[in-house]
Amino acid sequence: MKKILSILLLPVLALPARAEPVTEIHPRKDFCQAMLQGGAFNRYLEKTCGFKKGVSAKASRIISSECRGVFDKRRTSVLEKEAVDDGIMRFKRYGKADFCKANRQGYLDAGEVLDKISRARK
User: Fold this and answer.
1) End-to-end CA distance of the chain, in Å?
2) Closest CA to 60 of 39, 82, 38, 42
3) Three-class SS string for 63-113?
4) How far apart (Å, rounded) are the C-alpha atoms in residues 10 and 77?
5) Contact assessment for residue 111 and residue 53, using Cβ atoms and an 8 Å cutoff
6) CA–CA dist 75, 81 (Å, integer)
7) For the chain, how big is the Rg over CA atoms in Å?
8) Could you tell me if 100 and 52 are in contact, meaning their C-beta atoms sit under 8 angstroms apart?
9) Pairwise pLDDT comparison (67 vs 23), residue with the higher score
10) What is the mean pLDDT of the chain?
11) Which listed residue, of 12, 22, 25, 68, carries a Cα 20 to 30 Å from 52's Cα?
12) Which of 16, 5, 121 lies closest to 59, judged by CA?
């Protein structure tokens, strides 16, 4: 019985040796980065496509209450610029009509998610 058990455990004991290196997990930092970039991109959509559901304002309210002090002003600007630059690149590639059409549902979905986040944090 001991031999069978040791044979069965051998592959299990070897698993930790194959695991990926441990990396730091920063859930608040990741959340705030997603909020900053999502807010900036949605502000760009509102300006460029005329979307009017206030998604960027919802993101800004969450950012101001949950992300104060996570990034300095310089890092905040860099993150927001990355999101907007990506939007500009896609806008130029697809044209206004296709770009706005392709992003409309995502914009609406983001608004719903932000509403849920706001309700959960109250």
Assistant:
1) 57
2) 39
3) HHHHCCCCCCHHHHHHHHHHHHHHHHHHHHHHHHHHHHHHHHHHHHHHHHH
4) 51
5) yes
6) 10
7) 22
8) no
9) 67
10) 85
11) 68
12) 121
Lookup: tokens for 28: 């608040």
Q: Distance (Å, rounded) from C-alpha 121 to C-alpha 12?
A: 41
Q: Calculate the alpha carbon distances from 49 to 9, 37, 98 in Å.
A: 59, 18, 10
In angstroms, rounded to a whole number, what is the distance separating the alpha carbons of residues 58 and 75?
Answer: 21
Sign, CA torsion 3/7/8/13 = positive
Q: Please name the residue that has the structure tokens 């559901």.
A: 53
The token duo for 115 is 């509403």
Buried b (16+ CB within 10 A) or exposed e, 29-59: eebbbebbbbbbbbbbbbebbebebebbebb
**pTM of the full structure:** 0.77
pLDDT tens, 36-69? 999 999 999 999 999 999 999 999 999 999 999 9
